[in-house]
Amino acid sequence: MKIICIGRNYTAHIAELQNEKPTDPVVFIKPDSSVLPKEQDFYIPEFSNDIHYEVEVLVKIKKVGKHIEEKFAPNYYDEIGLGIDFTARDVQQKLKEKGLPWEKAKGFDGASVIGKWVSKEEFLDVNNLNFSLAKNDEIVQDGNTNLMLWKIDEIISYVSKYFTLKKGDVLFTGTPAGVGSVETNDYLSGKLENIEMFNVNIK
Ligand code: ZN
Questions:
Q1: d(CA 108, CA 59)
Q2: I want to staple 79 with a disulfide (CB 3.0 to 4.6 A). Which of 14, 63, 102, 117 is the partner?
């Protein structure tokens, strides 16, 4: 299974990191070894002093596909999730400055939190979903999928031009404004609409 991530998919988050609005989505891949095992705590890795949370809506691919047309994209997923794209911001900043790939900053062990999955049928419209992240019970990020620059179906169509999508692959659809750092003993929890999707302790 692979994890395909979209960067800079919400305008406010672009402004926050002073990035340019891209003409194509920013795409990167995280290895399956980056998935934080269920119920396990997240350990801040020793190579970073600035681990950021990025809460993101997730999509689980249900069958193999390549060159998927946008109008057929809904046939390729049934389940929506919520997760965290943990990012070693200090490591990423150094790599960005040199124009180098981001894998060390985003693909390390535990860097992908994947919460529970909910059938898309539970929702009226996947392009109008509220979601939020709380740190120590205080909301630090909230967004709605209607603010995405590239909607779920567009993302599926776009990434499948480059990568064959396989059953079980997970799309991370980008994070809204409010990214920030975590410290030991922080507690993160994510909600999609009113559903509790994950809880993570930071160690
Ligand atoms: Zn992200």
A1: 21
A2: 117
In the reported structure, the alpha carbon of residue 179 is separated from the centroid of ligand 1 by a whole-number distance in angstroms of: 10
Give the Å distance between the CA of 54 and the centre of ligand 1. 6
* Contact between 169 and 76 (Cβ < 8 Å): no
Q: What's the pLDDT tens digit per position in 31-90?
A: 999 999 998 999 999 999 999 999 999 999 999 999 999 999 999 999 999 999 999 999
* 34 CA to centre of ligand 1 in angstroms: 13
Tokens encoding 64:
């193999």
Of 3.40.470.10, 1.10.287.3510, 3.90.850.10, 3.40.1490.10, the CATH number of 3-201 is 3.90.850.10
Q: How far is the centre of ligand 1, averaged over its atoms, from the C-alpha of 66 (Å)?
A: 23
59 Cα: distance to centroid of ligand 1 (angstroms) = 14
- Can you tell me whether residue 157 is helix, strand or coil? helix
What residues does each domain of the chain span?
3-201
Phi, psi for residue 75 in degrees, rounded to 5: -75, -10
CA distance 6 to 131: 17
Residue 172 CA to ligand 1 centre (angstroms): 7
